[in-house]
Amino acid sequence: MTIDVTNPTTARAGVATSPMVVEDRANHTFRVHRAAMTSEAVYRAEIERVFGRSWLYLGHESEIPNPGDFVRRPLAGRPVFMVRSVTTGQINVFHNSCTHRGALVCRQDSGNAKVFSCFYHAWSFDTDGRLRGVPDREAYASGLNFDELGLAKVPRVESYRGFVFASFDPDIVDLPTYLAGAKDYLDLVIDGCGGEAEITRGTNEYSFAANWKLLVENSVDGYHAQSTHDTYFKYLVSLGTDLQGGVDGRAITLGNGHAVIQYTAPWGRPVAKWEPLFGEDAREEIARIRADLVHRYGDERARLIAETNRNLLIYPNLIVNDIMAVTVRTLYPAGPDRVDVTAWQLAPRNELRGLRDRRTDSFLTFLGPGGFATPDDIEALESCQQGFAGGGVEWNDISRGMGRGPMANDEEQMREFWRRWQQQMGTAADLENVR
Question: Which residues form a coiled coil (predicted)?
Answer without folding.
Answer: none
